[in-house]
Amino acid sequence: MTIHLLNCFTCNARVGNLKTGMVCPLIETNDGLVLVDTGLGLGDYANPSWMTRLFRLITVMPFDRKEAAVIQIRQLGYHPEEVRHII
Question: In angstroms, how far is the first alpha carbon of the chain from the final one?
Answer without folding.
Answer: 17
